[in-house]
Write a structure and sequence with these properties.
The chain is built from 18 helices and 14 strands. It has about 450 residues and is of the alpha/beta class. The chain is globular and about 75 Å long. The relative contact order is 0.10.
Length: about 450
Amino acid sequence: MPISTKLTRALGITHPLIQGGMHYVGYAPLVAAVGNAGAIGCITALTQPSPEALQKEIRACKALSTKPFGVNLTLLPMLQPPNYDAFAQVVEDEMASGQLRMIETAGHFKGLEPFVIRFKAAGAFVIHKCVTIRHAKSAEKVGVDMISMDGFDCAGHPGEADIGNWVLFAKAARELKIPFVASGGCADGKQLAAAIAMGAEGMNMGTRFMATVEAPIHDNIKQALVDGDEHSTTLLMRSMRNTERVYKNQAALKVLEIEKEHPGDFSKIGHILSGDNYRRAFQETGDVEEGVWSAGTVMGLIDSVVTCQELCDNIVSEAEEVITGRLANSVTLVSDDVSSVDPPKITPHCKWPRVLHYTVIDNFMEKRIPHRQAHIRLAEEFMQAGKLVMKGARGDLIFRSREDAFDFVSLDPYVKYGIVTDYAVREWSMLESAAQLRPT
């Protein structure tokens, strides 16, 4: 079943997932693939060399998909700032068809408000990326529709406050009057379920979408993301208060070395940070050591290159399972009159239900998708018949008897189609119950 949130309803999309703007990644082929997968993607405006090139890229996306999509426009001070007004005008003009619906903004060069007013007048849904609650409240005041709360885990610019997502999202839910999505370090369904539980309306992902089949970057870069982990990034330009989280390669380590000797002096490192080095590594050479390029700690959760469809389906399917399974089963209804509840009878000869435990194939989350609804219906039938007692906190199934468990195995499509490689039925004990109540 789809997960419906304020994000999906506002934009007319199926999945509450955003592919955020990324330099030399956010091109039409990726954005269209994300849209066709039921989520929404952003073309990165400033990756294009001119407003005319941006217009061409937007039209290329329209030719590849009829689904909604967005444009990212980052408003940052630069030595030679682009013509932001001209880029914004292209976005406004291309919104007339209704397919370009979302504008993702970041930064505040010469003020965010004039751009928000322009985009909203053209009918855009504006999401502004922020790294602190203070900045989010400022964006709220100028009229943005939603905030993308970007925690310290993120790739690119995490700001200077170093606030992690665990606190940032919880405080956003308390303090903001407008909705927000979770951003920074996002990659899987458990995180989507957690983000929704903390008040978010979805997730905004960057690095994870780089490791997809449709991402228009060199395969070597994608493999580097798979091979990397949460320790494979570093922070540059801290001495300039313009911190950037990047992939830890030879170029980044050289920048750190120079920055240590010449803190605050951009002229000493500018030649290494050149955007052309970035572009060449992504689009031409595939040399992961060349140039300085953004990547997040979420590499620790990336273990394969998949299609956008597979990625979005897997994330939402896993989130659904967490929400309807683990979270739902963690809530136990008890009588208001505690004194009337008899304590459990614990004796050496007490007959306990039986636990069915599955061993599954490595790519279980992907392979189970065609059979998941049939598996769920079977479980519901057994529960209605009183044969299935409950779902365990670790995903095991607890049956009334050994015979009921074996009957379930004989009918389960997960077993029939080889998604389950082995299974065991064992007695459920109080020790088992206590263990399942501990955090895992």
